[in-house]
Amino acid sequence: MTKGWTLYDSRLAWTLVAPVLLLLVFFLVLPIAVMAVYTFFTFVTAGVEATTLTLANWQEFFTDSYYHGFLFKTLRVGAVTALICGVLGYFPAYFIWATTFKHKWLLLLLLIVPFWISFTIRTFSWIHILGEQGIINVTLLKLGLIHEPLQMLYTEGAVIMGLLHFLLPYMILNVYVSLESIDRTLIAAARSMGCTSAQAFREVTLPLSLPGLGAGLLLCFVLAAGSYVTPQLLGSGRDALFGNLIYDTIMGQLNWPMGATLSIVLFVVLGCFAAVYTRYMGMSQIVKGLSG
């Protein structure tokens, strides 16, 4: 009887999971597999490729430093953005968690309000802030602090600023969810044993919130490294990231095999970072942060 119920439960579980698995295979695994196969096609001319299998695309990537430069720069910009998000995002998250404000939900609402506005519109707004006729340059010129507009737009700094604007809420949410899961009696116990507020934070709160901080760092890094819109709008040609290179290869040069190769490279590289995080931290913290 027990064996029959176990078999029934197993079939029921697979029946319930089957629709989700089919969606994942059709919309995630299959497109990636098709893209991987495309990397071995032979590029003939713009928009034309032959099904003759070749390793030329991979050989070009591994031997051409042009692609390596874009990849390393993308990883650097992603890492810098993630680290700045971590530094700037921890304190607001800690404030929201520690505050005794009765309507804490209002603070969280203010945090997610930017998501109600189109990401593209939010990115465009930085042009009116950092541009030669933007609010910063106009203000500094009227105050007489500068004599000509500063070049702030179409730089790597502008790209990082736009990415920070986009990604900071993700960091704050991940850290806040991690802080919210801390048992406050542990902090009270530390204080009762003679710890100061700073010592209790350093010995209890900070270590227990590290999973959320790590999840935020990974999420910000992956989203920044895979970004296309922000570098396209706020950066110049020399500030383009790997996503812009992929777009230009596919849409500009119409070289689908090479574009597919670059896409798989970025997918694998970012996947490796996610795999390392999953190995030591698990993905549940990221899921909590995104759903928080």
From TrEMBL:
Q: Which family does it belong to?
A: Belongs to the binding-protein-dependent transport system permease family. CysTW subfamily.
Which organism's genome codes for this protein? Mesorhizobium helmanticense
Topology with respect to the bilayer:
Multi-pass membrane protein
Mind telling me what this protein is named?
ABC transporter permease
GO terms classed as biological process:
transmembrane transport
Please name the InterPro entries in this protein's record: MetI-like (IPR000515), MetI-like_sf (IPR035906)
Keyword Cell membrane part of the UniProt annotation: yes
TM ranges:
12-30, 78-98, 105-129, 158-177, 212-234, 254-278
- Which CDD domains does the protein's record reference? TM_PBP2
Q: Which residues form the ABC transmembrane type-1 domain?
A: 71-277
Q: Which controlled-vocabulary keywords does the entry list? A: Cell membrane, Membrane, Transmembrane, Transmembrane helix, Transport
| Subcellular location(s) of the protein | Cell membrane
The reply to whether Transmembrane figures as a keyword in the UniProt entry is: yes
Spell out the GO cellular component terms annotated for this protein, sorted alphabetically and separated by semicolons: plasma membrane
